[in-house]
Amino acid sequence: MKIISVTAALAAALVMLNTPVSALPDSPGISAECAVVINADTGTVLYEKNDHKQHAMASTTKIMTALLTLEAGDPNRLFVADSTAIKVEGTSMGLKEGDIVTRRALCCGMLLPSGNDAANAAAVSIAGSLSGFAELMNRRAAQLGMKDTHFVTPSGLDAEGHYSTAYDMAVLTREALKNEEFRRICGSASIVTEFGNPPAKRTLYNSNKLLGMYEGCIGVKTGFTDNARRCLVSAAERNGCTLIAVTLNAPDDWSDHRKLLDSCFEGMRRYSIRLNSFSAEVVGGTERTVSIVPEEELALGLTAEEARRISVKYTVPDFVYAEVSKGDRLGRADVYLDGRLLERVALTAFGSVSREEPSRGMFDWLKNILNGGFMTAFVKE
Question: Is this prediction's pTM over 0.90?
Answer without folding.
Answer: no
